[in-house]
Specification:
The structure holds two protein chains of two kinds.
Chain A: H1 3-15, H2 19-38, H3 46-58, H4 69-89, H5 102-105, H6 117-128, H7 131-142, H8 147-154, H9 158-181
Helix pairs in contact in A: 1-2, 2-3, 2-4, 3-4, 4-8, 6-9, 7-9, 8-9
Chain B: H1 2-16, H2 22-36, E1 44-45, E2 48-57, E3 60-67, E4 72-78, H3 85-99, E5 109-115, E6 118-123, E7 129-130, H4 131-137, H5 142-161, E8 174-179, E9 182-187, H6 229-232, H7 239-255, H8 265-273, H9 289-296, H10 308-316, H11 319-329, H12 333-347, H13 356-361, H14 366-377, H15 384-414, H16 421-447, H17 449-452, H18 456-461, H19 467-470, H20 472-475, H21 484-505, H22 509-523, H23 529-545, H24 549-565, H25 569-586, H26 589-599, H27 606-622, H28 626-640, H29 646-662, H30 666-684, H31 689-704, H32 708-725, H33 732-746, H34 750-768, H35 773-788, H36 792-810, H37 815-831, H38 834-852, H39 857-873, H40 876-894, H41 899-914, H42 918-935, H43 941-957, H44 960-971, H45 978-998, H46 1001-1016, H47 1019-1036
Antiparallel strand pairs in B: 1-2, 2-3, 3-4, 4-6, 5-6, 7-8, 8-9
Helix pairs in contact in B: 5-7, 5-10, 11-12, 14-15, 14-16, 15-16, 16-21, 21-22, 21-23, 22-23, 23-24, 23-25, 24-25, 25-26, 27-28, 27-29, 28-29, 29-30, 29-31, 30-31, 31-32, 31-33, 32-33, 33-34, 33-35, 34-35, 35-36, 36-37, 37-38, 37-39, 38-39, 39-40, 39-41, 40-41, 41-42, 41-43, 42-43, 43-44, 43-45, 44-45, ...
The chains are: A mainly alpha, B mainly alpha.
């Protein structure tokens, strides 16, 4: 049995009430799910992360065994993300969330903590891509998912995966160049007020150029 | 190319999900708990436990956290990112500046710290909504909007006063909290707050490009729509740019339209060049605001208002509000005034602000004055009439100044417009309180005239300081009248406090305490801070007078806290000053040091600064740092030169007298002391407690200078005056007796001293009880003459009683306890109980070093006493070493030319002579003689003693001529007291010995005969001496 089979097994056990199995799975995959939401949604993501795991446990979807647990998990995350955006932006089911970008959907400052200068521009540029492109790039480069796994996670055919990746990279380069060139388009760190859910955050210090 | 990008992309994951990030940690723990039931210890930032992640704002993320120690929730802004250590430091520094700002309209920063490499700021967690939301969503009336903005403006002003600038003021950055009956605005997000200076990394020129949308965050330094033109040009923000932003926001809020509407940066810049557009509105409720706001939005900073303060004052002048205020006030002084103003506006017939006299009339009418006068004259006391003639003009004066202050407060706001109505409110509230105190004081004087007669001057002097009601800086923001439902209770409380204060000033400690406790019970649970503070302060002072320092400290601390929270600056400082002097008295200098910073107010008045200097100097004096104290008092006097306050000057001079005395600068101290007496006699009369005290103080100085006769004159005068101004049983009387007694003892008049001091002990015990510090002091002093008269058992009993009391009240290590134990040691030594004596002396030394440090005059005393002990035991080597130590410490603490140094040198020299090291002894004695000649009175015992010692030493060294000269000098002083007699016959004997050495038999015989003659009249000691002389004569022939 492969490692991914192990995990599918674990999921089954978890579904049947084995908390240890669940704990193990959770620990191994928490980071992936967390960063998936972190880069696309402002505000606390604990609820979304929880819902993702819950969806996994409760979902009746068959997991394609050759793809494995992780793509399944991340696919759930993606669905939950899109559902969340639909709720927040009051979009209908017909609207194509995937073609909007994070900056369109959620202009609040990113909560991603960027430690290295060279990553800053990249992570910012990603937010300007369409969600479809951003997600495919992240899953490929951050989560190291490959072909069939990507297809499983995104629920699209392999061909689409390939073209999205290619186009995504192009778009990314364009955005990087565009952002690098025009400082007035630098991400503002100034607004400070996220009024979502009626909660107000208190912000204090600022310095430009995150 | 692709390769490069791809590589970067792959590496970027590291940034996208840092491992040890509090948010990630918390999220993981939270989800694990819910999903798997896993318990984990809370994520922490600094010492705070994270409750949850709230979201991202500005340059950091915000967490809701909990402070276990203070049991409160708070918000933590974690500023994680790419920042150099230097930048992080800068940030912390700025945040700390913000933490120092404490204002009701600014979010409170509690703590600033580092979480790993990232700075965090812990602050109040606010619940509510932003001003943006509040002003648009809820249907808010323009007046209420204005009120909210005025509050926010007050917050900005407070920050400006601290050197902080907001730089990004807008409705999103003001929080509205709903409180019962009102709202409270809190300015938040001092995002671009710099300490008024540019930091090069941040001020960059904004490019002239399109801004794609004014609602999208798209600029480098902040939403431009509220920014001042100079900020758009890249200049750093300033208080005036905050003013600009404030006015833009307020205009938009009131009229619904942005005064510089634009949809591009260029458009905005162009709009700034034109005057702001405020829509015309026929139904405008607030027309007078337009010109004010227009000025605040002037393109050039120099054209705007000088400060947020002046802008706010201008905005606060609402003529309609005044009319409404009449309805709110419903009576009292202010209503009369306001009606006058409003009426004036409408009818133009009455002059404004004339209601002051009427307002004061019901507490100080002619009728009341007459009945008070009658009360005084009815007393069968000789000085009642005089007392009345002294205090009645003071009362009149107060009434007059009150009326003036009242009128001025009104005129300033309604006619001159140089103060806002808000300020007038506060001044009136202050005056109202002052009036209440006056009322209660007059009441007490009238109903308890007999009891308070002797201290009526003090009572009158205790009337409130009206200047404080005029000083805006001292009024505080929370100086409001109590809510109507509480007014009755608060008034009663105030009345009781005033009574307590008056009684305390009159020396009626027990009654005063009763009243203060009643007041406390009355206002308990009200939650109205000003009255709480007043009650606790009165209670604290009374408890202190009652000799209960611990509960006094508690009450004073409570007073301090309440007055700090209510922003009653004068009250707070009074509480602090009271506590400070209480702790200084108790010798808790560490606490005093801790309280010191709080007492540095933002006082600009010379009188306050002078008062503070006097306090500091007094503390230094108590700690033995007399030269610094002298400087401090001199500084205070210099400051007071500009003010006409002779009593304050007298107080500073009094302190100066003490410190000069401690420095042994007796001539100067005497001159100063005499001036004090002169001033007080002139301003208060000779029959006044303070004048009496001044005489006692001078007596003390003269005693230390060795001028016993003059000192006795002063001490007797002090006692006489005290008896005449204090009622029998008043503690000041035995205190004055004690001063006289100590003096008599020092002068060697032991019998008289004993009688006086015995009486003093009785009186003190009657006044204070057997377990009071004053009683302890009295017993301590009693031992002196008893010891001199060699009634050592009685002396020991007295001292042991003193030690008992002091140990229980002050503790073992207190310098005063040490002093008495040292004296016990001395007595035991005299009795020959050397081991017990050593125990006491060493305990005293240890206690003194622990509480005063190694280089303190009292430590020198201890060393000397232990030296004396060794001397008695016959261990001269050890004795000499100890005396040398005493010399060293005395020089270190008091300077090389202090008489104490001379004293110890003489002791040491005496040992050296016995040890045969005569040359060293002579050198020391010469030095001692020099010091004493310079500092002491020519006829003083100490000087004679030195001549004797030097003479003896010189004779031993073989320098017979000089030795003889010294001794002859000693003999040349005419005899006046017992002790002097002993020195003289000792001198005579030494002379005889010396002359014999010289071979001058004739002189030797004469001298010996003189010695015998003198010794014969000196009781048992003299007789014992005579026998020694006789023996010598017989031996040598």
């Amino acid at each position: 049995m492969t490692a991914s089979d192990d995990e599918i097994d674990q999921l089954e056990r978890w579904r049947n009430g084995d908390a240890d199995a669940g704990s193990d799975l959770f620990d191994r995959h928490f980071s992936s799910v967390f960063r998936f939401f972190r880069s696309k949604i402002s505000g606390p993501v604990d609820d979304l992360v929880q819902r993702t795991f819950v969806a996994c446990i409760e979902g009746r979807a068959r997991i394609q065994s050759d793809a494995g647990f992780r793509p399944y998990l991340l696919g759930c995350a993606r669905n939950i993300l899109f559902a969340e955006y639909r709720t927040r932006k009051k979009l209908g089911s017909g609207d194509d969330v995937g073609s909007s970008s994070v900056v369109d959907l959620d202009p609040s400052p990113s909560a991603v903590v960027v430690r290295k200068e060279e990553h800053a521009l990249l992570l910012r540029a990603l937010r300007h891509l369409s969600l479809d492109h951003q997600i495919v790039l992240e899953l490929y480069y951050f989560e190291a998912l490959r072909g069939p796994q990507l297809a499983a996670a995104l629920e699209v055919p392999m061909g689409t995966v390939r073209s999205r990746l290619k186009r995504g990279l192009e778009r990314l380069r364009e955005e990087v160049e565009r952002l690098a060139a025009d400082p007035s388009l630098a991400v503002s760190t100034m607004t400070g007020m996220d009024t979502w859910a009626g909660e107000i955050q208190t912000a204090l210090e600022r310095s430009p150029g995150d | 190319m692709d390769d490069d990008l791809e590589k970067k992309l792959a590496a970027a994951v590291e940034s996208a999900s840092p491992d040890t990030d509090p948010e990630a940690e918390w999220t993981r723990a939270a989800v694990a708990r819910r999903l798997l039931g896993r318990a984990a210890s809370p994520t922490k930032i600094g010492r705070f436990a994270v409750v949850r992640f709230v979201g991202s704002g500005g340059m950091g993320r915000v967490f809701l956290a909990y402070d276990e120690r203070l049991q409160r929730e708070l918000a933590i802004k974690l500023l994680a990112g790419r920042r150099s250590k230097a930048a992080a430091e800068r940030l912390l520094k700025e945040a700390r500046a913000l933490a120092r700002l404490s204002h009701p309209n600014v979010v409170q920063v509690y703590e600033v710290g580092m979480h790993g490499d990232d700075p965090f700021i812990a602050m109040e967690y606010l619940r509510g909504s932003t001003l943006r939301h509040w002003q648009t969503e809820t249907s808010t009336q323009p007046r209420h909007i204005l009120d909210a903005y005025l509050q926010a403006g007050a917050g900005l002003q407070a920050a400006h006063e601290q050197g902080l600038v907001h730089r990004d003021f807008k409705p999103e950055n003001v929080f509205i909290q709903a409180e019962p009956g009102r709202i409270r605005a809190r300015v938040i997000d001092f995002g671009l707050a710099r300490l008024g200076e540019a930091t090069s990394a941040t001020s960059t020129e904004l490019p002239t490009g399109e801004i794609t949308s004014v609602t999208r965050s798209g600029t480098v330094l902040g939403t431009p729509m509220y920014m001042a033109p100079e900020q758009l040009r890249g200049e750093p923000g300033s208080p005036r740019s905050d003013q600009f932003s404030f006015c833009v926001a307020l205009t938009e809020a009131l009229w619904g339209a942005h005064p510089f509407s634009a949809d591009s940066l260029d458009g905005l810049r162009a709009a700034h060049l034109r005057p702001p557009i405020i829509p015309k509105d026929p139904a405008d409720e607030l027309p007078w605001l337009r010109p004010i706001l227009t000025r605040g939005m002037a393109a050039k900073p120099e054209d705007r208002f000088g400060s947020m303060g002046s802008l706010l004052d201008a905005l606060g002048h609402d003529p309609l509000k005044r009319r409404r205020q009449v309805l709110v006030f419903g009576g009292g002084a202010a209503a009369v005034v306001l009606l006058g103003v409003a009426a004036g506006r409408l009818t133009g017939s009455e002059p404004p602000c004339t209601g002051a006299k009427e307002a004061f009339d019901d507490v100080w009418s002619d009728g009341r004055k007459d009945s008070l006068a009658a009360a005084f004259h009815a007393l069968e006391a000789g000085h009642a009439a005089q007392t009345w003639s002294r205090i009645s003009p003071e009362l009149d004066d107060f009434a007059q100044r009150w009326a003036q202050g009242h009128q001025d407060a009104c005129l300033a706001a309604s006619v001159r417009h140089d103060q806002s109505f808000d300020v007038m409110d506060r001044r009136m509230a202050c005056l109202d309180r002052a009036r209440q105190v006056f009322d209660a004081t007059a009441q007490t004087l009238e109903s308890r005239a007999a009891e308070v007669l002797d201290r009526a001057d003090d009572v009158a002097a205790g009337l409130p300081d009206l200047d404080a009601c005029a000083s805006v800086s001292l009024l505080g923001a929370h100086n409001r009248s109590p809510p109507a439902s509480q007014a009755g209770i608060v008034n009663r409380g105030r009345g009781l406090v005033a009574e307590a204060n008056a009684l305390r000033a009159a020396g009626q400690v027990a009654l005063s305490l009763e009243k203060a406790e009643q007041a406390e019970a009355e206002v308990r649970g009200l939650g109205f801070l000003p009255i709480e503070a007043e009650v606790q302060l009165a209670l604290g002072r009374t408890l202190r007078d009652a000799g209960r320092p611990d509960p006094a400290t508690q009450a004073l601390a409570a007073a301090h806290e309440a007055s700090a929270r209510a922003e009653l600056t004068t009250l707070r400082r009074d509480a602090l000053a009271e506590r400070y002097s209480l702790e200084a008295e108790r010798g808790n200098f560490a606490v005093c040091d801790a309280l010191e910073p709080g007492m540095q107010g933002s006082s600009r008045l010379p009188k306050e600064i002078a008062d503070a200097r006097v306090r500091q100097a007094s503390m230094l004096h108590l700690r033995g740092r007399s030269s610094e104290a002298t400087e401090g008092f001199r500084e205070a006097l210099a400051l007071l030169e500009a003010i006409d306050d002779p009593l304050a000057v007298a107080q500073a001079r009094d302190g100066l007298t003490s410190s000069l005395t401690a420095q042994a600068r007796f001539a100067e101290a005497r001159a100063t002391g005499e001036r004090v007496i002169e001033t007080l006699t002139k301003h208060l009369g000779s029959h006044h407690p303070r004048t009496a005290e001044a005489h006692a103080s001078l007596a003390d100085t003269l005693r230390q200078a060795g001028e016993y006769d003059d000192a006795e004159v002063q001490a007797r005068r002090a006692l006489e005056l005290t008896i005449s101004v204090r009622p029998p049983g008043h503690p000041d009387i035995p205190a004055a007796r004690r001063t006289l007694g100590s003096l008599l003892w020092a002068a060697g008049k032991n019998e008289q001293a004993l009688a006086t001091l015995r009486q003093s002990v009785q009186e003190t015990e009657a006044a204070f009880g057997p377990d009071h510090i004053a009683t302890a002091s009295a017993y301590n002093n009693l031992a002196g003459p008893l010891a001199n008269m060699e009634r050592t058992d009685e002396a020991l009993a007295a001292l042991r009683e003193s030690v008992r009391i002091k140990t229980s009240v002050l503790g073992e290590e207190h310098p005063s306890t040490a002093r008495t134990r040292d004296n016990v040691g001395g007595l035991l030594r005299m009795q020959g109980h050397f081991d017990e004596a050593q125990i006491e002396h060493e305990a005293a030394l240890k206690a003194r070093i622990a509480s005063l440090g190694e280089d303190h005059p009292q430590v020198a005393i201890s060393h000397s006493n232990i030296g004396a002990l060794f001397q008695f035991k016959g261990d001269l080597v050890a004795a000499e070493k100890k005396y040398a130590e005493a010399v060293r410490v005395a020089i270190a603490s008091e300077g090389p030319s202090h008489p104490d140094v001379a004293h110890y040198k003489v002791n040491r020299a005496n040992m050296l002579v016995e040890l045969g090291r005569v040359r060293e002894a002579v050198a020391l004695l010469r030095s001692a003689l020099e010091i004493r000649t310079a500092k002491l009175d020519p006829g003083s015992n100490a000087l004679l003693d030195t001549h004797n010692a030097l003479g003896r030493a010189l004779c031993s060294a073989g320098q017979l001529t000089e030795g003889r000269e010294q001794l002859e000098e000693s003999l040349a002083v005419p005899p006046t007291t017992d002790r002097l007699a002993m020195l003289r016959y000792e001198a005579a004997f030494e002379l005889a010995k010396c002359a014999r050495q010289e071979g001058d038999v004739e002189r030797a015989r004469t001298a010996a005969a003189l010695a015998l003659k003198l010794a014969a009249s000196d009781g048992p000691k003299g007789r014992a001496f005579s026998e020694t002389v006789q023996a010598w004569v017989e031996e040598r022939g």
